[in-house]
Amino acid sequence: MLLDWLAGCSAEEQQAILRLREKILSFDERIKEEIEGRSTIRYSKGKSKPVAELCYQRASHKPVVFLWLPTPTSWRKEVIGRLRLWLEGEIVTHVGHVPEGFGRMRTHSEWKAMPHEKRPKRMFHNGSSKSLTPVPIPQGYNDVSNSLKSLADLALTKWLARI
After folding, report:
1. Which of 4, 32, 100, 131 pairs with 40 at a CA distance of 20 to 30 A?
2. Record's superkingdom (predicted)?
3. What is the distance of C-alpha 134 from the center of its chain?
4. Residue 93, pLDDT above cutoff 70
5. Could you list the residue range(s) of the whole structural domain that residue 96 is in?
């Protein structure tokens, strides 16, 4: 299933996602790969302790990566949430807190490519799950680099602290 999904990705993104999968599954024997329906692969210890999720998005014909990381708005008290990652190869360009599904978030270039009448009347940007644009992370996120590998390491460290 995953290999079929990866057909829509660049070779660099394919390798990055396959390395992510291998990193997660080899990190701790308690993390299991669970296929949910025809469009979701979840990596977790049961239903309540997820670390990552791959969801196939029909519109883009490729998988979307979600990691459980500190949310962009958790400054005072760290809150772990389901963050969608926007990838260019193995570099994460944006993150957005999307509690379920794919959410309505789009990068500025994705909104601009959409017909004007389909865009929301009011665009606002902040780190919350209500924002319509994700947070750009050109240098990194939460004191780690913006590579998929580094963010996966952070997600696995946070997962281990939660279980």
Report:
1. 131
2. Bacteria
3. 11
4. yes
5. 2-162
Name the DSSP class of 134: P
Which stretches within 9-147 are classed as H helix? 11-27, 108-113
Structure tokens at 128: 């919350």
User: What DSSP element (H or E) covers 50?
Assistant: strand 50-57
CA angle (135 as vertex; 132, 137 as ends), nearest 5: 155
Nearest to 36 by CA among 106, 101, 124: 101
* Strand locations in the chain (E): 32-36, 40-44, 50-57, 62-70, 80-88, 91-97, 135-136
| Block residue for tokens 């772990």 | 80
Confidence (pTM): 0.88
- Coil, helix or strand at residue 69: strand
Note the residue count of the chain.
163
Q: Total structural domains in the chain?
A: 1
